[in-house]
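Training component of the fellowship. As part of building independent skills, the fellow (R.M.) carried out the full modelling exercise for a liganded target. The chosen ligand was magnesium ion. The inputs are recorded below so that the supervisory panel can assess the work.
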Amino acid sequence: MKLPRNFFKPLAIGAPAPLRALPLRLERMIHFVPPHIEKVRAKVPELVAQVDVVLGNLEDAIPADAKEAARAGFIEMAKSCEFGETGLWTRINALNSPWMLDDVTEIVAAIGQKLDVIMLPKVEGAWDIHYLDQLLAQLEAKHGVNKPILIHAILETAEGVDNIASIAVASPRMQGISLGPADLAASRAMKTTRVGGGHPEYKVLADAGATDAPRPAYQQDLWHYTIAKMVDACAAAGIKAFYGPFGDFADSAACEVQFRNAFLMGCVGAWTLHPNQVPIAKRVFSPDPAEVAFAKKIIAAMPDGSGAVMIDGKMQDDATWKQAKVLVDLAGLVAEKDPEMAKLYGL
Ligand code: GLV
Ligand code: MG
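Fellow's submitted model of the complex:
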């Protein structure tokens, strides 16, 4: 077992010291862009003001013959644009692919200082994180990068789900984990053809009555177990959990419900693959002003978080105070970025 003291030593001489706490950042949506398409790259400066994270995608959805163009396009886009408080991430190709090593070495060499997070797909266990952790330390040292590049794992294999608790604590570089429902469905041999969301046949049927009247059926959430497991692993490790992609761009209502379930269960954001999903993620992952107003009442009534009080007939104690703190702190982050929301929150 690695000794606790060594956990926070740089893995290469000259690499920056690992972070002890995650930077405080608003990450309601990780917006995917295909960087090999020039027209898309040209819109990135505009996008920066609208989203919390811009991610240059190099992995799935990028054709094999455009992989190198996507990498070069991402480097160009990172160099030519100022990101300010907006996160700059990339999703590199998988560890077993012919592109991964060049993705990491070329990107860190060219724009390592600007890059916040590398999203690593198809993570199976802590060993995958250890490999990237070591490689990043060597490259940071070589190229004089003075802040650690963080790692975000995609949960998209059955083995990864099995090992999620150890993946979440594999390195101080771990920023978070996203559900990857498309690859995970394939890995588990689920009988679906979708990217995220529910399935009409995954349901329970009401008990049979005395008559032959049709029995109501209730659709269930296919992803409930996985999201719960991911949220627990991430919360225990002090990192963030995210819903991944929702592939039916035309079904905004279903996307919103799926995102909201994830938010209520503890996720902080989701991927947005289409511009029409950005306002959905913004709406869902910014706390509800009415909930924030109630949370402020709880904190005002129990300034030090101890004891018990009644507010509007509901019992409040240190556990609801902590929930209130989560909402008010998040509202504060949203308010810093968004003056409209700041007004709604009264912050
Ligand atoms: C995302 O990469 C997924 O497989 O759902
Ligand atoms: Mg995938």
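The panel noted the following from the submitted structure. The pocket of magnesium ion (ligand 2) is lined by residues 60, 121, 156, 180, 182-183 (CB under 6 Å). Residues 318-337 form the longest helix (20 residues).
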